[in-house]
Amino acid sequence: MINYNPKDWFGLIFRFHKSDTFRTLFWVIVSVSLYSWLVIYIELEVIEMNFSSSVMHSLLGFVISLLLVFRTNTAYDRWWEGRKQWGALVNVSRNFAFKISTWVKNAEAKPKLMRYAVAYPHVLTEHLRKADYSTLPDKHQLLIDDLKKDMHHIPNALAKRMQKMVDENSHDLDTAKQLALIEDLNAFTDICGACERIRKTPIPYTYNIFIKKFIFIYIITMPIGFAGTFGYWTILITSFTFYILASLELIAESIEDPFGLDSDDLPTDTLAENIERNVEEIMS
Q: What is the DSSP string of 89-110?
């Protein structure tokens, strides 16, 4: 995720980064411009037809704008829901560490539970990507190799270990404290499940493909409808319109899965490191 100053208007206007939509769409925009030039040349110079349907395209433009607004809002809702779940993970990790540090008396169980709580956000980060746990810090590798013996779903295996350890030390806890710890452990699993729901449930295929087809048809018919009114200026109008519509669709595609490594995705690695520092500070 890119950190920036949202109030720096001019700096943002003239800033380009590797995921900027213009770079992604550059050659497609060039192709659209060439196509527009060819259509306008044939219409005005070859068959000398002065056809105009700009009013119809204006109406259709309003409809497609509504669809794209709904599309981007839906994608942002998924991004923000992911951020809320990771915010909840920060809180539950801190609460769990507070309770472990003050309630658990077993000198062997306490550091193990801290180790599990520290590892969980790192494990969840990789689980929501490609489950390549080899990229995690070396201090977590032995634990993950051990967890793989229990089950393939590593976050569940880690939650099970914490649950088992809490149960083994229940003699040091009264019923209220034990239930409070179990509630935190349930929250870990609930957060994991909510993130999996976002990760594994894309925008419905029919809706997604319809928007792309609508944009395509709208753009390829623009030179035909606008040539009689704007002449060769239609090339610029068509290319710029395509850039706006396609950029909105690309932005929606980028943020609807917020757990990857794109520049607009959530900073889950940073959040996991912050949780680790918080837990270690609490336990110290």
A: HHHHHHHHHHHHHHH---TTHH
